[in-house]
Write a structure and sequence with these properties.
This is Two pore calcium channel protein 1. By secondary structure, the chain is of the alpha+beta class. It is built from 8 helices and 5 strands, in the order αββαααβααβααβ. A hairpin with a 2-residue loop joins strand 1 and strand 2.
Length: 250
């Protein structure tokens, strides 16, 4: 997603640059500016040799989408960005500086966010690996959900009323027929999903979360007093992770 964000950002500025600055940068285009040497292209003969004095900065232009991407990348890494800006400004007007200033400011914000996300994910994964060195491979989670025959029938009715997918209804009808054939009242569905950062955080800070729950239970018990209506101590608290049966898929 971060790479897609950066691609959209580059593409947007490339399109704007092509609309405003297409075809204005070429060899010897900026002879009256302070960066004329960077855009100079001279072909002269010295003795028996032909010498080409070339500045090469005219290649950084907005003539097509590829050149625009290369130019924006050079602006991102701050590679003599003022030469490109002055060349464009000399061929247009001083208002062109707003394009480069906006690109520079937005680049700083976007790149800072991207780097922050990458560093945060790296530090979290490093801390998790350090704290769970002997843990199993966290490739996924299997969730178990037990459904009765009546609940399955109600789901089928909802599918019929809402005109759900035919394939899903066929699978549910097949499960219902198997339950009737084997005289079963319940069926267990297994769902698989990949681990998220919340799952890893729960596992990583399981002990701390349990201490927080116990401390919260003690405070509630002290506030309610000996005649409190809850009557539950820290041992009866239900901690996160115990509300559903799950196991690691290896």
């Amino acid at each position: 997603s971060l790479g897609l964000t950066l691609l959209i950002f580059y593409y947007s500025f490339a399109i704007v640059g092509m609309e405003f600055f297409c075809g204005i940068l070429y060899p010897n285009c900026c002879n009256t500016s302070t960066v004329a040497d960077a855009y100079r292209w001279l072909n002269h003969t010295v003795g028996n040799k032909t010498v080409v004095d070339e500045g090469y900065y005219y290649l950084n232009n907005f003539d097509n989408i590829l050149n625009s991407f290369v130019t924006l990348f050079e602006l991102t890494v701050v590679n003599n960005w003022y030469i490109i800006m002055e060349g464009v400004t000399s061929q247009t007007s001083h208002w062109s500086r707003l394009y480069f200033m906006t690109f520079y400011i937005v680049t700083m914000v976007v790149m800072t966010i991207i780097v922050a996300f990458i560093l945060e994910a790296f530090v979290f994964r490093m801390n998790y690996s350090r704290k769970n060195q002997d843990s199993e491979v966290d490739s996924g989670i299997t969730l178990e959900k037990e459904i009765s025959k009546d609940e399955l029938t109600a789901v089928l009715e909802l599918y019929r009323e809402g005109r759900g997918a035919t394939s899903d209804m066929a699978r549910l009808l097949k499960v219902l027929s198997q339950m009737e054939r084997h005289e079963q009242n319940t069926v267990v569905f297994l769902g698989r999903r990949s681990r998220t950062k919340s799952d890893l955080s729960l596992k990583m800070y399981q002990e701390e979360i349990q201490e927080w729950y116990e401390e919260h239970a003690r405070k509630q018990e002290q506030q309610e007093g000996p005649f409190g209506s809850s009557g539950r101590g820290p041992a009866t608290q239900q901690f996160p992770g115990s509300r559903q049966r799950s196991q690691t898929v290896t």
